[in-house]
Every structure is written in structure tokens, then in C-alpha cells.
Amino acid sequence: MLILSRKVNEKIMIGEEISVSVIEIRGDQVRIGVDAPKTVKVFRREVFDAIRAENKAAAQSAPVFPEFDFGAERRPL
Q1: What is the pTM for the complete model shown?
Q2: Average pLDDT in the 25-33 region?
Q3: Where are the domains of the chain?
Q4: Contact between 11 and 21 (Cβ < 8 Å)
């Protein structure tokens, strides 16, 4: 892990298209701004983890409409 020190209004560049700016430091909180192309998804870690868990649960669940599961055998009505 790379650890850098920055002051308010200073930036960190990630590649050539992503910049992270220190916007404000107040007590034990730091406000940062991320400038990235729209194709790059940027999430807080807790939101990212929740999305990943939800996607994993959805992938492991049974189809909502099993009669439309075209890979399954047909069952008599």
C-alpha cells in the first residue's frame, strides 16, 4: 500500500485520468473529491461490499420464474 501525505487542495493522480483531491480536513474526518471518467465506478468501501454481497446472493439464488429457465427440463402442468 502506498501512503501519501496531502494538504487541503492538493491532489493525487491515479494513472492519467483519475485524480483524488483533499477538499477539507475537519477534526478526524477528511473530505475527498474523486475526478474520474464516467466509465470508472467509484464507491465508498461499505457500498462496494454491499453491492458485491448482493450480486453474489443473486447469482446463487434460484430463478424467480423457473418455468422460463430454458436450460431446465420441462415439467408437466
Answers
A1: 0.67
A2: 96
A3: 11-63
A4: yes
